Amino acid sequence: MMEIKAKKDLFRCKRLLIVVFLCMVLLSMGGCKADISGYADQEIKISGLTEEDFIITVGELADMDCESATAVGTTQKAGTVKAYGPTLETLAETYGRSLDEFRSVKFCAADDYDVTLAALTWDSYDVILSVANGSEPLDEYQQPIRLVIPGADSGKWVRMVEEIEFTEYE
After folding, report:
1. For residue 81, which of 25, 23, 150, 21 has the smallest C-alpha distance?
2. CB atoms within 10 A of CB 84
3. CA dist., res. 49 & res. 56, Å (int)
4. Cβ pair 48, 166 in contact under 8 A
5. Would you say residue 100 has pLDDT above 70?
6. pLDDT in tens, 51-96
7. 98 with 109: CB under 8 angstroms?
8. Backbone angles phi, psi at 108, to 5 degrees
9. What are 80's strand-pairing partners?
10. Which residues have C-beta within 8 Å of that of residue 134, sequence separation ≥ 6?
């Protein structure tokens, strides 16, 4: 009788170990599935989110809680984009802030294009700081990150974002 109970206990332990192993495998599959190693160390300057300006890398953004979304541009040139990255809200919350504290956020690109978003945008849409095109890395002309706002006018999308400036309410 004791031998049967011991075998059942051993079988339960093995099942539990298998479940734990499968959970660990699934958790390790989280994060960015695209190979961003070629540009993971590229830097984005962040202003106004904390008392001091700071630099964050693409790799650090990819390590945050990320979302995937497909966005259809309002022009043929914008096309359809598969975005993967943290939301603007996630970035703010990572540094102990809420987007409710800010009047606007400006995204500045390497080609001198910039877009300023107000609360109406981030209250209505997910604002994704895309570190990858779905499971593919960003093209070189889009790096270090791309701003994608599924459902919003694609004129607000920005590629080559190298600086993000938060402006608080006065």
Report:
1. 150
2. 24
3. 12
4. yes
5. yes
6. 999 999 999 999 999 999 998 887 777 778 899 999 999 999 999 9
7. no
8. -110, 130
9. 72
10. 34, 68, 70, 82, 83, 84
